[in-house]
Amino acid sequence: MKNEQYNIPDRNSALKLLESVNLAPSIIQHSIQVANKALEIADKLKNIRIDRKLIEIGGLLHDIGRSKSHGFDHGLIGASILKMEGISPKIFRICETHILGGIDKDEAKELGLPKKNYLPYTIEEKIICLADKYIKGINKVSINERFDHWFSKYGESDILNRAKKRIIEIQKEIEEILN
To answer: Which of 22, 28, 49, 169 is the most buried (most CB within 10 A)?
Structure first.
């Protein structure tokens, strides 16, 4: 059952959509953990208006593009899948902006993506981007652990260093809202 006002599916419909695109069960479990972590973060932010439904469903659907690619393009592929499904642009924007700590237009070009800013701007985009960095597979990790894994896998590149800096900035921004 979809929320027609925002065209955001409910939790069960979102999970069925993930299954319908043959997303690996391990990635579905990761997405559930990210959604739960994002809701946990959102629930601590009492003095700011946050769309919990957007957080929950955005967290569930953020990696839907991994049904077709595990590269940096999986965010764009996910957005395309969601567009074809008639899902809210707010959700497909979450797909586009959760990669690393967001990707600016120069980094996008360097990574072979269309030259556009894929940086999280809304609080919901930032929360999901951050929550995703706290979950590696289905395990909770620190930001340093998450990036250390990427540094060991891909090497310590300028893009990864800038991404880590952005995530730390998002983390600080959210912590400031808490205080």
So the answer is: 28
